[in-house]
Inverse folding.
């Protein structure tokens, strides 16, 4: 599989496609048109056709795409069979919500453990995930490849340094802090406050066309 030929933008949309197709498959639906897909995942159908052409799925006119074929492809590409172990650092409001959610809809990622400093939280479990003291990070984190950061901003940099030393490969940073990592570590930054503000800004300054006009 020449996976590295898939453009990054396409790769980012794969989980979206995967989730929708998985739902269709559960409902026993065998095929889907790019128009239906487009409406469901909110990606225009030209982009979907281009994305799918990268993995050799060419929709037939009047037939659409074969759901099972696509799912098989996505499973392989997204490493659905290989579980990526995730750790969560900081069991506050946001962290607690993630532990309850635990991304069970993606079969390939699982929060295996969480870390905090609070004596009330350490030693307990949330959503079946054990919470350890941050002092035990090095001892526990061995097989974990990805970390979710939901600590206060002031803690982000120090914890990142430790995570990098422990060999973490990816960090999903939910703190407003910008963290610095060496080149081989990938950081995705999600600042929910900024996302919300930006949505409100766009609503105000770039209103969408009213369908009734
Ligand atoms: P959130 O921002 O997730 O809503 P919160 O307001 O409940 O969180 P914060 O002060 O942001 O609380 O802290 C998030 C969590 O991070 C808390 O449970 C806190 O105990 C924990 N925490 C603070 N410092 C550290 C640290 N150095 N290592 C691990 N966890 C920490």
């Amino acid at each position: 599989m020449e996976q590295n030929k898939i453009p990054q933008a396409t790769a980012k949309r794969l989980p979206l496609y995967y989730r929708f197709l998985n739902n269709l498959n559960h409902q026993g639906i065998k095929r889907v048109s790019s128009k239906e897909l487009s409406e469901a995942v909110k990606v225009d159908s030209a982009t979907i056709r281009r994305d799918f052409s990268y993995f050799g799925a060419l929709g037939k006119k009047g037939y659409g795409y074969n759901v099972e074929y696509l799912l098989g492809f996505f499973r392989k590409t997204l490493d659905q069979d290989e579980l990526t172990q995730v750790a969560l650092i900081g069991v506050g409001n946001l962290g607690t919500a993630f532990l309850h959610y635990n991304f069970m809809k993606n079969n390939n990622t699982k929060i295996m453990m969480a870390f905090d400093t609070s004596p009330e939280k350490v030693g307990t479990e949330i959503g079946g995930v054990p919470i350890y003291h941050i002092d035990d990070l090095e001892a526990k984190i061995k097989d974990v490849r990805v970390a979710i950061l939901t600590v206060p901003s002031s803690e982000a940099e120090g914890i990142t340094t430790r995570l990098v030393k422990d060999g973490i490969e990816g960090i999903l940073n939910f703190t407003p802090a910008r963290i610095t990592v060496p080149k081989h570590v990938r950081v995705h930054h999600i600042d929910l406050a900024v996302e919300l503000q930006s949505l409100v800004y766009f609503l105000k300054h770039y209103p969408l066309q009213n369908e009734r006009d």
Observations:
- The chain has a mean pLDDT of 89.
- The first strand starts at residue 31 and ends at 32.
